[in-house]
Amino acid sequence: xxxLEELRAIRExxxxxxxxxxxxxxxxxxxxxxxxxxxxxxxxxxxTALSDAVQSxxxxxxxxxxxxxxxxxxxxxxxxxxxxxxxxxxxxxMTPEKALEVVDQHLIKGQIVKKYTIAEVIG
Amino acid sequence: MYRSHVLVCGGTGCTSSGSPRIVExxxxxxxxxxxxxxxxxxxxxxxxxxxxxPIMVIxxxxxxxxxxxEEDIPEIVSEHLLKGRIVxxxxxxxxxxxxxxxxxxxxxxxxxxxxxALRNCGIINPENIDEYIATDGYEALGRVxxxxxxxxxxxxxxxxxxxxxxxxxxxxxxxxKFAKGYDADQKYVCCNADEGxxxxxxxxxxxxxxxxxxxxxxxxxxFAIGASQGYIYVRAEYxxxxxxxxxxxxxxxxxGLLGKNIFNTGFDFDIDLRLGAGAFVCGEETxxxxxxxxxxxxxxxxxxxxxEKGLFQKPTLLNNVETYANIPQIILHGADWFTSMGTEKSKxxxxxxxxxxxxxxxxxxxxxxxxxREIVEEIGGGIPNGKRFKAAQTGGPSGGCIPAEHLDIPxxxxxxxxxxxxxxxGGLIVMDxxxxxxxxxxxxxxxxxxxxxxxxxxxxxxxxxxxxxLDKITKGNATLEDLDKMEELCYYIxxxxxxxxxxxxxxxxxxxxRYFRDEYIAHVVDKKCPAGVCKALLSYQIDPDKCKGCTxxxxxxxxNAINGKVKExxxxxQSKCLKCGACLEKCRFGAIxxx
Lengths: 123, 595
Known about the structure:
The structure holds two protein chains of two kinds.
Chain A: H1 4-18, E1 28-33, H2 36-40, H3 43-56, E2 62-67, E3 79-82, E4 89-91, H4 96-108, H5 118-122
Parallel strand pairs in A: 1-2
Antiparallel strand pairs in A: 1-3, 3-4
Helix pairs in contact in A: 3-4
Chain B: E1 4-9, H1 12-16, H2 19-32, E2 39-44, E3 56-59, E4 63-65, H3 73-83, E5 96-97, E6 100-101, H4 108-111, H5 129-134, H6 139-147, H7 150-160, H8 172-181, E7 188-193, H9 202-209, H10 211-225, E8 229-235, H11 239-254, E9 259-262, E10 267-276, H12 285-292, E11 316-320, H13 321-333, H14 335-339, E12 349-356, E13 362-367, H15 372-379, E14 389-394, E15 400-403, H16 413-418, E16 427-432, H17 437-451, H18 457-474, H19 480-496, H20 500-504, H21 507-515, H22 517-524, E17 540-542, H23 552-556, E18 562-563, E19 571-572, H24 582-586, E20 592-594
Parallel strand pairs in B: 1-2, 7-8, 7-11, 8-10, 12-16
Antiparallel strand pairs in B: 1-3, 3-4, 5-6, 9-10, 12-13, 14-15, 14-16, 17-20, 18-19
Helix pairs in contact in B: 2-3, 6-10, 6-13, 7-8, 7-10, 9-10, 9-11, 10-13, 17-18, 18-19
């Protein structure tokens, strides 16, 4: 170890992963429906894509987690973004590509990707 | 990248209750469900709630599974990890509420805790230096080497008010200052990891859960006092700690955080392990250093103090594991942050190993000044089976008992000494009405007799005589004169023994005499043991009115001491009775009692 910068580089690299082990309640929660219906319509790659993106972009304030069936099986894979103090946003018929768009637009820039929300799609 | 981390406790407690098998089962099931690239299994250090081990925490969400069994793993993997449905049945009961699973930090056990020394235990993988770095590890060392002078480091530690966590409570900064004050061609930094108090395991947990923190702090200390070599003296009976320390040392060397020219500042420092063979006296500083030198572990008189002539006759700094674990955090957050916790003369937090008659056996770290009542009743979850609190023993064989009347005293170094006990390394054994205080004193004295190194007479012979006197009392053969003689001997040993072991050995006797003299009197005068522990003073009786003559007791008695005909009251032959209590346990009519 030759400098503090070198040390900090390792920390940056690792922090995304360790950030997962956070018991903080004022996090933004991204919830993927992973019941049988969700898995069957492709929720797992969506979950993995979200989780990878959040960690590699170092979004320490975001927790990606799963849930069971919320009863809208025909619209799976469903991703919900729950921000403390704001209305829940529900994205439906997600794919890994759409999920990455949500990470970039919604989680980083704070702009809801309207075209994928349940209100917009089934209007 | 993994979307979920499963943390399995790999401390000694959970390891012995089967966590290695849980890890294997988890890996198999995760593979079977095709989750190998999505879910990471990480072995961590101690979570503290040893009574509920093996413990497993799943992130994100920090779901806390307790008492996990191998056969539960397939369900947890397919439900929780695959489908995201928490298996409520297996979750730690305290976190289950009607609204769902509440955060672990809101439970009674964790709510009042404040983790500094244990901050990484149960969070990181102790065998991975990167995870330690991710939680600010080695940042303090980097800053110290590049931005501080040795005097500034020492001043920060002085200002923090940190006191030795091994028991004595000597101001750490002062120790560092003394060690720096002596000039020599070679100085040493040592770490006392020879944790020997019965019931104390906080140092082991730090070494197992966060070994790098000790290496980092020792290197900081080396810079402050001008030493280039460190030794960790650790018990060979802590195999997991030894293994993880060695891994940590190897990794730190590989990263250049130990060795030559650390952080390109020209500062050299290295650390080696020395294993102790398990003698209690080697936790005493001079005996510890004698042992590192390769000699028989016996104390030597002070002065000269280690700061002047310690290891190999060179100036030496010796601190305890928990003391070191506080150092990097003090550097990072400042002395003011540390002094904001605790009482006037005792700053920061202290780790206690809770044991004995208490629900939540395990490890807790609390701010100084927390009351014993909060520890026992809230964090510890109270005493099982509806029994009453009688006393808490702190400080192991060097400490004393705290009776119920002092439950509300804020715990710090000075308060504990003022009530005749001491902080010690932090073992806290809770006793209820079924514990006999004379018997407890005898237990600790027997320990000291066993562990006395034999170098000085007051300790070698004095503790033996004390133990014999206690034996006499528990057998009902003592007189009141013996009590006075015993007390006198206690003070004699305290004043004349060579090292800390002998000087504090009579404390368990003195403190029980102080608070529970009536119990001693009952043994001596009435020949009774009020708690019903001392066998020689007990007799088992059958109440003829309640006995139905079921014959169960006479069949269960291992020495055929109970006679009687079917459907007639039975009688115990006192000359044959072994006082094992088997009959009392088995009687279905409550006819048998002990007096």
